[in-house]
Amino acid sequence: MAEPALVRFETENGIGIITVDNPPVNALSPGVPQGIVEALDKGNADPSVTAMVLIGAGRSFIAGADIRQFGRGPAAAPPTRRHYDVLDQSAKPVVAAIHGYALGGGLETALACHYRIAVPSAKVGLPEVLIGILPGAGGTQRLPRLIGPKAALEMITSGRHVPAEEAQKLGIIDEVVPEGDLKGAAIAFARKIADQKPLPVIRNRDEKLSEGTPELFEGTRKAIARRARNQRAPYACIEAVEAACRLPFDDGCALERKLFDEQVGSDEAKALRYAFFAEREVAKIPFIPADTKLRPTDNPAVIGAGTMGGGIAMSFADYGFDVKITDATKEALDRGISRIRANYETSVKRGSLAPDEMERRFARIHPVDSLDDIKDCDVVIEAAFEQIPVKEEIFKKLDAIMKPGALLYSNTSGIDIDLMANMTKRPQDVAGTHFFAPANVMKLFEVVKGTKSAPDVLATAMALGRKIGKVSGLAGNGDGFLANRSRAPFGMEINILIEEGALPEQIDKVMVDFGYPIGPLAVSDLSGLDIGYDTRKRRAEQYPNYRKQPIADRIVEMGRLGQKTGAGWYRYEPGDRTPHPDPEVTRIIRETAAELGIPQHEFSDDEILRRLLFASVNEACKILEEGAALRASDIDVMWLHGFGFPRYRGGLMYWADTIGVREVYNQIAGWHQRYGERWRPSDLLRRLAESGSPLHEAKAARPMP
Ligand code: CAA
User: Fold this and answer.
1) Measured in angstroms, how far is the CA atom of residue 280 from the centroid of ligand 1?
2) CA-closest candidate to residue 323, choices 269, 372, 280, 378
3) What is the pLDDT averaged over residues 337-352?
4) CATH superfamily of 300-479
5) Is the minimum distance from the CB of 233 to ligand 1 under 6 angstroms?
6) Can you give the pTM of this predicted structure?
7) Domain spans in the chain, listed from the N-terminal domain onward
C-alpha cells in the first residue's frame, strides 16, 4: 500500500488548500517541506486558483522541525528550493491557518506566508532556545521585522508559547477566528485577499528595525545573564536578532544559519534535546497499556491543611479544579486557609498574579469540617502528619466512607504505601502521589506504586499530575521512594565533606557554578534546618547503623535553624535573604572535627562536585537494580523538576555520561577502597562500566515490585 501523503493539495472554489498531515504534531520531517513546495507550485500553476491556504491536519498546525532528526550525522543536502523562500516568492497569496501549535519552523513557515489567521486556543512561539538552539529558518529575521526587535527578542530568548489573542495584539496574527471551522474561515479570508497587490512579504519590511538600538541588545544580555549562565543559545538568539537590525535580510539569514549550525551539535543542545524526550518518556509506563481507561478526577479533596496540604489544594485551584480541604480540627483548617490566602497575596504583591485571578482561585478551595463531607469525591489526597498511626486511622476511615472506585492517594514522603493500603479493603485503589515543597510551585509529581495498586489507579495518578501542570514520574515503594532516595547520598556527602574541611560557602559556590540556581546549603537554610534534624533523629532511632551528622546537629542545637532565625549554615542581616559566610560556623566545624579526630583536607572544586553527584549516581544505579525506577532517564527528569538540576546538563545520569561511565565507576571503586562501605559500587554500575553502556540509557534490572 502506498504511504499516505504527508502534504495534500486540493482546490475548493478557486482556493488551493495545502494540508500538512504528519501526525502527531505535523513536524517538518523529511518529505514535508518538499510536499509544501510541490503544492505551492501546483497552486501557482493552476489558473483557477486565486489564493492558497496552508493548514495542518490533526491537532496542530506545525510544531517545528523534527527534533529527532537533529544530531543524526551530517544533514542531507539542503533542498535547492526551501519552502520558506517559495512561500515568500509565491505570486499568489498564501494564508496560514493556525490551530494547536505553530512553533519553531512551524511559526517560521507561517511567517513566510502572506497572512496568518488562528483560532483562540492556538499558540505560537519560537521555542528553539529551550532545546539549546536558535530559530534556523529566518525566524530571527522575520519576527523582528513583523513585531519589532524588542518584542521579538522577548519571545525568542524566552521561547514561550504566545496565545493567539496576544499574538494578534503583537501583530503576528492578522485575524483570530472562532473555533470550529478554521478551514472555512481560512477560505473566506483567502477570497477576501485574493486580488490584493502588492502582497505583504515580511522580508521586505524594515520600518520597525530602528528600534533595535545597542542599548536594547546590551540590556537583554544583562537581563538574561542569570538564567542563561553557562549557556550559549540565548546569546546566539540575541546575536541573530541584532543582525536582523543591521544586515540585509539574506545576510541576516546566512548569519542565523551559521549560528544554528554551530549550536545544533553543542553539548548544551544535545542535553536539552535529551531532556525534552526524557520528559515525554517518563509519562509512559511499559506495563500499563496506553489506552487504559482512566478514572474520574473532577472532584478532588485534600486531607490536611498544613503547608503541604495547602500547597496541594492551591495546585488544584490554580488549574481550575474546585477542591475540598479538611483537617482534624477547625483551628488547623482555619490556619491552613489563612496560609493559602497569604501565599496568594504574596504572589499578587510580587506581581505574578492578578488580584481578580487570585480571588477566582481562592474561591475554588472549599474548607469542609470532616471526612464525611468528602465521601463523594472522586479522588482524595491525604497530606496529614507523617506519623504511621495518623495515616492508618485516616485510611481506615476513608475505606469506610468513600464511594466505590474513589482514588485514595497519599502524599507521604516516606511512609510505606502498603501500610496504608492494607488498612483498607480496597488496596488496589491506593497509591502514593508525592508532591515536592512548595507543592504549588515545584513541578515534580512522584507517583508511588504500592504492591497492589491497580494499573488504572497509577495511570490516573500520572494523568492527574499532568492536569495540574506537573511532570509525573513513577516510583517504587521503597524507603524514600525514588527522587529523595536518589538525592539522599548527595545530602549525606555534603555533611561528610564539611566534617573533612570543606566550608558551606565553597560547596555552594561549586554547585552554583555548576548551574544550580542556589547552593544546597543556602537551600537548607531557606527551608529550615529543623526538618532535616528531626528526620535524622527519627532515622537514628530506626536504623542502628545510621550515619550521624554531628556538625549539622550542633548547628541546629545552637538555635541556628536557617533564615527564619537569622542564622543557619550562614548568617543573615535582618530583612535580607543574602547568605553571608559566618566565622562562627567555621569555628563550629573546626572544633567538632577536632573533637572527632577527623583529619582536615583542602578540596578542589571538581572533587566536591564529583563526591556529591557520584554518590547519587551510585544510588540511582541501586534503585534501577531493584526496579524502583523504570528508567535512568526518569531519574534525570526527577532531578530536573524536583531538585533544580541544571537542565542544560540533561540530568544526573546524563551528566555522569559526559564524564564517562568507566571513569565514574573507577572513581567510585577507588573511594570504596578509601572511604569504605558507603561507596560500594552498585552491580549495575559495574556492569555498565564493563560494557561501556551509557548510564542514561539504563533500564530497571527487574520489574517494579
Ligand atoms: N519533533 C519531533 N517530535 C516531536 C516534536 C518535534 N518538533 N514535537 C513533538 N514531538 C513528538 C513528541 O516527542 C511526542 O512523541 P511520542 O508520542 O512518541 O512521545 C509527540 O510528538 C507528542 O508530543 P507531546 O507529548 O509533547 O504533545 P503535547 O501535545 O503535550 O505538546 C508540543 C505538543 C507543544 C508541540 C510539544 O510537543 C513541543 O513543545 N514540541 C517541540 C516544539 C519545538 O521545540 N519546536 C521547535 C523545533 S526546532 C525548529 O523548528 C528549528 C527551526 O528553526 C527549523
Assistant:
1) 9
2) 378
3) 96
4) NAD(P)-binding Rossmann-like Domain (3.40.50.720)
5) no
6) 0.95
7) 7-262, 266-288+605-705, 300-479, 501-602
